[in-house]
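hi! just following up on the protien thing from before. the input was this:
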Amino acid sequence: MASTSSSTLGLPKFTHNNKLSSSSSALSRKTRLPSNSISSKRRRTISISSCSIDSSSVEPVKSISPEVRVQTCMWNWKGYSIRYQYAGNCGPALVLVHGFGANSDHWRKNIPVLAESHRVYAIDLIGYGYSDKPNPRELGDAPFYTFETWGSQLNEFCTEVVKDEAFFICNSIGGLVGLQAAVADPSICKGIMVLNISLRMLHITKQPWYGRPLIRSFQNLLRNTPVGKFFFQTVATRESVKNILCQCYHDTSQVTEELVDTILRPGLEPGAADVFLEFICYSEGPLPEELLPQVKCPVVVVWGDKDPWEPIELGRAYGKFDPVEDFIALPGVGHCPQDEAPHLVNPLIESFVARHAIMKS
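and the predicted 3d structure came back as:
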């Protein structure tokens, strides 16, 4: 769901050194020529008018489409129990990757629709949702909840569960996960659509030198004192979750009690606080602008233009990278387009996949 921006979590806000120039908002509209070669594509900026599964671990889930049956499954990854959802029996494989603090239920409005013509998987990254949440303090000195960990999880999920190449459809920090996975093993990912990818504004390199010691001190306070657990307790309440969602959804009518439950309940499970604090103190690792040049598959960047945390003026710069064939602005949409405006996002996913899917004989 949310990005770990300073406005989101109440963290100290510093002036940053933008590596993404806001002048990129002046990108011209271009016409894309049909081609299967990334390098030969002319990128364009578009504005969309709002006009082996263990059967014992499979649990049927109510689907909004009577023709589609969504199943909840558990996958054993490196000794950890990982929850995912699956629907669809034919067509290209899609793997849906959630954002910070969210889980695969955040794709509940997308899975049944996309499953009518695709094999759709939505995964709970380790540490989130109903997947295991190992305590990072018990896993050695090296950080565990990193994009490298999640990228490896995503690739091995495709190898062991999907058993095929896949398209990655990702929201917020999930976009970093998808990009990291595609860079680590280009043979698995056929294409990536990122929805309001996290700009990682709290990354240490985006802070002025004089603010970095204060950030480190604040992170140490959260991670190593009772202040961190108190902070999490203030965030992990129904009222706080609803307020955060109302910030990140431009159309607040979409912030229903069902959505609040979807985000809140897994966050109350044992271990969730440690994962939360570990990640908001993670200010290193890759940036989107570092990963995008290394990606070998086609990329589409989609952005809700009313995102209060990840400004579209900065996000437009991602449309300039070679693998990116389209930058698509969604007017009147916030940080989580797949849930706030599925009527816009689902057709974009279908169109992107149709352009690049080559079914094996």
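Residues 77 and 168 are 19 Å apart (CA to CA).
Confidence is low (pLDDT under 50) at residues 2-42, 49-64.
cheers
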